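Progress note, sequence design subtask.
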């Protein structure tokens, strides 16, 4: 190159730098405007065209879901037409820039074998510069490309300039995407809430679409909003504990503790220290101070299961906590105050117990502020198919193998009257699953569980079927309790009377003899 040519090129170069500085300023102004991303990109390309001599600009952005590049904006050409054009990474010149993450400078685009001309945008005789759009060292998220008006020997400088613009664009695109993601998350959340409100009867892990269960779901939603005491009633196995959980986890206390206590499992003195805690030395064995369940449940919910089983003396103590929210630890004098929502459950007919003077009336009213009655399974047989499938899926997870159930098996299940309700159904299906080698629970598997025996069978002369003699010395303790429960239609209090036990005694026996399998 002659010295005059160098000088001329030098003058040319400073003119270019000046022009580019001005263009950069304009780009920064475009970027600082808040507008929709497509508009910003189009405006930037316009500035490049008008102020930086970089023509036919085009921005392609990665579509994160498909991994393809789509044209985000182009200075010329129709938007609709451009939107159809896509490149896979590596495909064509633009795809290659995205894949390699390197700037590409081509003196004459027509000479480039990878040039696909999908956009029909470029002038074949002119140079082409494409740069990756990327934030820092991250993988490129798009490509910015344009054609200088001529090959003036300053393609490297032009490429630098285009890189600067691409860096600025990268921040803007990333911000727009983040905003879009946030907006999407908010819409999803709104839609989810809407669906939840609309369906109204869906609670996690609680299956049922019968009218009776829909009413229960509605009640759960209502009570979950408030802090009132809830009394859940229903026969054994109808899902009282499940509903207590649902109330807690659908309430504003969901992030607080959920503490359970089975009142039937403990004698009075232990029950008291369990619930209220005790001070060190309060009784033999109280070697250290201990917080009770009420204190543990502060800010959350306490679930008092089998509340119908507590003694008269204990009823009085409980009444005070419910009324005043206060109590003392056993052996302590300091009065403690807690913020606890009480959910209680019972399968007893509390009104009868009140009538007979076995349950305090004042406590009954305190507890019965918001009663929720869980219907017996035999009153809502239409829920059995869904329940059976749900429970089989749960068993499949527990057993770690695929399980399914035939329609014939489900029909048989619907004919049974389920005195032990959902728990009995669950146990029956578990036994059937064990019997089934193939993993398909069919009629045979159900019958093998002995369910057929309980199906209402025509009885000769209307005479009742022979019942197990509860005094039969051949029976062991477990068989005797089960026989009594069966004869009592699984009503524990009745079975207790048959055996000459107190309800608490039978509840305790049932637990220690593991007659009801709660968890797998
Ligand atoms: N609607 C339901 N959907 C799904 N599973 C249920 C439903 N109702 C009950 N179950 C399941 O049945 C079993 C028994 O339910 P749960 O322990 O809540 O009954 P319960 O009323 O507390 O019985 P009990 O009075 O004998 O203590 C549990 O494994 C529970 O998950
Ligand atoms: Mg229970």
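Output:
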């Amino acid at each position: 190159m002659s010295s005059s040519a160098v000088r001329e090129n030098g003058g040319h170069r400073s003119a270019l730098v000046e022009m580019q500085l001005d263009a950069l300023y304009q780009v920064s102004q475009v970027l600082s405007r808040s507008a929709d991303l497509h508009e910003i990109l189009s405006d930037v390309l316009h500035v490049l065209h008008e102020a930086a001599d970089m023509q036919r600009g085009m921005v392609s952005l990665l579509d994160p879901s498909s991994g393809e590049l789509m044209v985000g904006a182009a200075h010329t050409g129709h938007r609709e037409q451009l939107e159809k054009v896509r490149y896979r990474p590596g495909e064509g010149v633009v795809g290659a820039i995205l894949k390699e993450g390197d700037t590409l400078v081509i003196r004459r685009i027509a000479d480039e074998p990878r040039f696909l001309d999908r956009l029909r945008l470029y002038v074949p005789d002119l140079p082409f510069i494409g740069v990756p759009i990327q934030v820092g060292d991250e993988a490129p998220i798009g490509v910015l490309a344009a054609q200088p008006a001529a090959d003036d020997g300053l393609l490297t400088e032009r490429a630098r300039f285009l890189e600067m613009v691409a860096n600025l664009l990268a921040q803007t695109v990333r911000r727009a995407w983040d905003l879009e993601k946030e907006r999407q998350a908010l819409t999803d959340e709104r839609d989810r809430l809407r669906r939840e409100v609309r369906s109204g009867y869906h609670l996690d892990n609680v299956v049922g679409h019968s009218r009776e269960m829909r009413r229960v779901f509605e009640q759960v939603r209502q009570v979950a909003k408030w802090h009132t005491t809830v009394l859940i009633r229903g026969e054994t196995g109808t899902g009282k504990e499940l509903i207590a959980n649902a109330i807690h986890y659908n309430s504003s206390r969901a992030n607080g503790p959920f503490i359970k206590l089975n009142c039937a499992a403990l004698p009075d003195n232990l029950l008291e220290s369990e619930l209220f805690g005790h001070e060190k030395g309060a009784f033999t064995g109280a070697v250290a101070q201990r917080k009770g369940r009420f204190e543990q449940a502060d800010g959350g919910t306490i679930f008092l299961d089998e509340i119908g089983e507590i003694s008269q003396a204990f009823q009085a103590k409980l009444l005070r906590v419910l009324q005043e929210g206060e109590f003392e630890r056993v052996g302590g004098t300091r009065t403690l105050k807690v913020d606890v929502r009480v959910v209680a459950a019972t399968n007893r007919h509390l009104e009868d117990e009140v009538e007979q003077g076995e349950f305090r009336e004042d406590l009954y009213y305190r507890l019965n502020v918001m009663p929720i009655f869980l219907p017996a399974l035999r009153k809502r047989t239409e829920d059995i198919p869904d329940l059976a499938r749900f429970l089989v899926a749960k068993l499949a997870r527990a057993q770690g193998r695929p399980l399914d159930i035939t329609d014939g098996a489900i029909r048989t299940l619907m004919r049974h009257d389920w005195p032990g309700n959902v728990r009995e159904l669950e146990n029956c299906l578990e036994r059937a699953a064990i019997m089934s080698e193939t993993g398909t629970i069919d009629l045979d598997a159900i019958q093998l569980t002995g369910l057929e025996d309980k199906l209402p069978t025509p009885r000769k002369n209307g005479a009742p079927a022979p019942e197990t003699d509860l005094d039969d010395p051949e029976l062991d303790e477990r068989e005797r309790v089960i026989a009594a429960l069966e004869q009592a239609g699984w009503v524990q209090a009745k079975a207790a009377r048959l055996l000459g036990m107190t309800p608490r005694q039978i509840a305790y026996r049932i637990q220690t003899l593991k007659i009801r399998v709660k968890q797998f």
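Residues 240-241, 305 surround magnesium ion (ligand 2) (CB under 6 Å). Work on this subtask will continue into the next period as scheduled.
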